[in-house]
Fold this protein.
Amino acid sequence: MIEIKNITKTYRDGDISFQALDNVSFQIKDGEFVAIMGPSGSGKSTLMHILGALDTPTSGTYLLDGQDVSTLSDNELADIRQDKIGFVFQSFNLLPRTTVLRNVMLPLIYEGVRGEERKRRAEVALRAAGLDATHWSHLSNQLSGGQIQRVAIARALVNNPTLILADEPTGNLDSKTGEIVLSTFQKLNTEHGRTIVLITHEREVAEYAKRIIFIKDGTLVKQL
Amino acid sequence: MNPFDLLQETYLSLSANKVRSALTILGIVIGISSVIAMVSIGQGAKAQIQSSIEGLGSNLLTILPGVVQPGRGIVSSGRGSAQTLENKDLPVLDSIEGIESVSPELSRRFQITAGTGNNTNTTVNGVLPTYASVRNLTIAEGTFISESNIHSLGRQVVLGATVATDLFGDTPPLGKTIKINKTNFRIVGLLTKKGGAGFSGPDDMVIVPLTTMQKILAGVDYLSTISISVTDKNRMNEVRDAVSDALLTRHRVAEADFSIISQEDILGTLSQVVDTFTIFLASIAGISLVVGGIGIMNMMLTTVTERTREIGLRKAIGAKRRDINRQFLVEAVALTFIGGFLGVILGWLIAATVTYLGLIQTQVSLMSVLLAFGVSTAIGIIFGYYPAQRAARLNPIDALRYE
């Protein structure tokens, strides 16, 4: 359960200040598939950083599973990201020249999960992300774009997060592989009950979600 | 992150850039190996000097004419120029208690020719029969200078091992005649080879009766050295003072016109010289170690920049500052530690080669090996600290956006 209340974010650079988010409030229930949509510069990246516990708001509260995340320290935020958040990036961000399995296990290494358990959970995540077992021992640079993004999805799943945050996950893919990736998200939502927040500027992409939150100039315009 | 994972991550990232890692390690290898080699050569030289000086006779006091200036060592003794020691000094020494035997000596360099046509320029030492026992010399073949040789101004000579080889090669020299300063001498004895280099070793000299040396070869009646062996090592200082007093009285001077040197003085001075050189050479080698360390820092900074996005990702999936910090620090220390390990092996090989070539009997001490590991690890920590801090402080949002 995610609860955003009156969140504002102001960036300050010397005398110039810039209001990236202005009094944004919404809720996302467990098991929802929500798209946050807006043009570039609308503040959706800032919102994603706050939702992903990479950044804290200037004011307002962010409750994640009932815990107020908006006032945590660096280390506490790292713990939140480790336990509750799974990221899928536009540019994939896999470790280069590293096997698929090791890439997926990476979050578990920081969590301190033991070797065998680590491997088992990585395999479960890879299966859920729909990547064929024949690719698991391949190096990350031997895969196609669609396969890479599914590895990234598996990596986001592996720590059993409360929330999967996908930031323009199809931005670097052609429309056909983009569809495959998006239907993977749909499947994860419908079959595995995962809570997914999709950040995008494309309407077609946002359509895959069950609910769309529109954001513009740092404020929430409407919800569908 | 547990230690095993940390090592695995380190291995993966270092092996991802093998050439770069190897070159960086090479810097440390050169630094550590030269320090190890320099120190082991220095320690070997020190031990060698120690044993060759002790081989010259323990419990030995050496009286030299002239004054040895403190700090300048025995090198500037003015030996040969000062003529303050004479045969007349010897009787006063006889009455001193604790002296085992006294060996007056006069040495000069002369050209020596053998019947074979070979010639050499070496030290000719005019001595009494006591010389052999005072200086710990043993006769390999024949006899030493005898009492009757002294009385009869005999033309007998005993050869040091090196001189014998220089003059006669493989033919046995005993009984042959050599010319010292155009005077014929018959070879009556050969000294056992003592080994040890430098410092007027007994291998590179010939021995003639003192009387013959003074009256015929040199034409002077003074002495260049009086060596005294003391009965008991613990009485060295006591005997030294007594000898000094007796000579001052006989010379009728208040300030000594001679110097008394014990083996320990010589040892101390030479060890000090060798130590100074060792420190000097090791410091130069140490500079290359610092340069190696800067290489480490350079590489780590490049790596941090190259891997900015990776750092961002690691932070996004839950790595804390200290995880990132530790990862990069361990990478730097791994580089220097491997460098230290290879450097110790290379340094040891260099030292072994020096020993094998017979230049100096080197000693690689456990202490210097441990020190090398300690220093290389410390260099990893010192030069890896800043890059690791820089990586750890990266903001995940900026790092993920980094192009």
Q: What stands out?
A: Residues 2-223 of chain A form a domain with the Rossmann fold fold (CATH 3.40.50.300). The radius of gyration of chain A is 17 Å. Chain A touches chain B at residues 49, 52, 54-55, 74-75, 78-79, 81-83, 87, 89, 91, 93, 95-98, 106-107, 109-112, 155, 159 (CB under 8 Å).
